[in-house]
Design a protein that fits this description.
It is a single chain. This protein has helices spanning 2-24, 27-32, 38-68, 79-95, 127-132, 135-150, 153-183, 195-235, 239-249, 281-289, and strands spanning 71-72, 101-105, 111-117, 120-126. It is of the alpha+beta class. The protein has one domain (2-235): Zincin-like. The protein has a 4-stranded mixed beta sheet with strand order 1-2-4-3, with helices on both faces. The radius of gyration is 22 Å and the shape is elongated. It starts with a helix and ends with a helix.
């Protein structure tokens, strides 16, 4: 979950900075000098949208290290670190990817993988996860993160984010243009967009960006199921991944609820589940059991 939250937050921050910078440089006047030029606006939106998402991708690994204070294991200093590095190395070889950096950070039971490419990635686990799980369960979590890298999830997520960014920028400027026109309909001497345009665009980008994150979160939930299956393939069986998920969810054997929600949209997750980057653990276990 940390991987997705950091990526989306970084992307939204970069998009706002790019938007304000474009306004200060007069790009908006160029797009609206002779009315709203939709083809130019769409090209501008695509350039900004994909540019912002790819900048987020390139910054994903250093920001993840900085925000979690993760310590990359250069030379293992104890048996646990040596086991972590060796386990990830073996799994990476099985998955056909380059050796990721391996890191440990202080925190509750969790883990994440990030990085711009399959051969330049990072796998990080928390101290809470190492302390609360068995070695087999930790191995399954590591396999899940390696599967994310092997599946190219960060790059695919970047492309999806680029598409939604493009529409956010495009629609925000259309709304801004019409709101600005309504505010200045009696001001015939003015040319180019006014302050109403800039304020409306920024407000719409924030609102549309939040709504767009629902799309990205839905996609992320689907990738979690695939990464679970990838972990089972790397390990040769689904049982260790099921055991790890049970541990994370505090679910005893045979304790799966009867009325599980579909992709977290309904049920105990409520409306906020739309923004969740991970499906309910119960559904993930059920999907592995039905594999």
């Amino acid at each position: 979950m940390k991987r997705i939250i950091l990526f989306i937050a970084t992307n939204m921050a970069i998009m706002l900075v790019l938007s304000v910078t474009a306004s200060l440089l007069g790009v908006n006047r160029f797009l609206t000098s002779n009315g709203l030029d939709l083809p130019k606006l769409l090209m501008f939106a695509a350039l900004m949208g994909f540019g912002g998402s790819f900048i987020s991708l390139l910054l994903s690994k250093p920001i993840a290290k900085w925000s979690t204070r993760a310590r990359v294991i250069g030379q293992p200093s104890n048996a646990t670190e040596r086991w972590l590095v060796n386990t990830v190395a073996a799994q990476a070889q099985r998955a056909g990817i380059g050796m990721p950096e391996v890191a440990i950070y202080d925190g509750e039971p969790n883990a994440f993988a990030t990085g711009a490419t399959r051969n330049s990635s990072l796998v990080a686990v928390s101290t809470g996860l190492l302390q609360s799980m068995t070695e087999q369960e930790v191995e399954a979590v590591l396999a899940h993160e390696v599967a994310h890298i092997a599946n190219g999830d960060m790059v695919t997520l970047t492309l999806i984010q680029g598409v939604v960014n493009t529409f956010v920028i495009f629609l925000a400027r259309i709304v801004g243009y019409f709101v600005d026109g309504m505010l200045r309909k009696n001001d015939e001497e003015s040319s180019g967009p006014g302050i109403g345009y800039m304020v409306t665009v920024i407000a719409c980008e924030i609102v549309f960006g939040i709504l767009a994150s629902i799309i990205v979160a839905w996609f992320s939930r689907q990738r979690e199921f695939r990464a679970d299956r990838g972990a089972a393939t790397i390990l040769g069986q689904p049982q260790p991944m099921i055991a790890a998920l049970r541990r994370l969810g505090g679910i005893a054997e045979g304790e799966l609820p009867k009325n599980m929600s579909a992709f977290g949209i309904s049920g105990k997750g409520g409306a906020m589940a739309l923004f969740s980057s991970h499906p309910p653990i119960e559904e993930r276990i059920a999907a592995l059991q039905a594999r």
